[in-house]
Amino acid sequence: MDNDRRPGNRRGQRSRQEILDAASRVMAARGYAGASMSVLARESGLPKSAFYHHFQSKAGLLSEVMARGAHAFFDAMRESQASPPEGGSPRDRLHWYMRKTGEVIVEHQDFLRLLFVLVMSSEAAEAPEAMRTVILVRDEGRSQMRRMIYSSFLPAGEAEAGAVADDLEHFGMAAFDGFTISLQSGDRKPMAEYTRQLADGMAAAGEARVAALSRAADI
Question: Roughly what angle, to the nearest 10 degrees, separates helices 128-153 and 90-107?
Fold first, then answer.
């Protein structure tokens, strides 16, 4: 019989997932420092011994929470953007990409809330592996933003699409950072409205950049 089919192993896997679910929820709400083992045990209904059985320390637990959250977030992003529209203007394509990105962000708010807590505080200094995950998530986020912009403007030419992506990848990332914080702050503005305005603004900036490159080439 395979190990993963044994009743004890299944219970162990279930309790591990329950711990990660509870830790994700509690750490996102309270921060790393506020998520003591006592609080985590109470929230999950599992004994502290289960935590130490699966994770050697709270820092190790945080690292697993971040790694699992990052994996789920980017899996969802890739799935949501698996079939981009064919044809259409850069503005149309940007609207589609930004809307899809916004939908994934809304679905993964707990993970992103915890990520921002770690970025904006020093409380997770004892968990360097978790902070490395934060850096990787930020890098992958910018790369994803660049791919979306480049794909949207590719009909204008590879050089033009690359120039627009260079100009706007950090701006697009920063905009979604702000949108996420706005959602957490209860500003009552839907993500769809933010993404529509962002796509319009990025399209206008990108179109201006392409036009400038065209004028320069004609000189």
Answer: 160
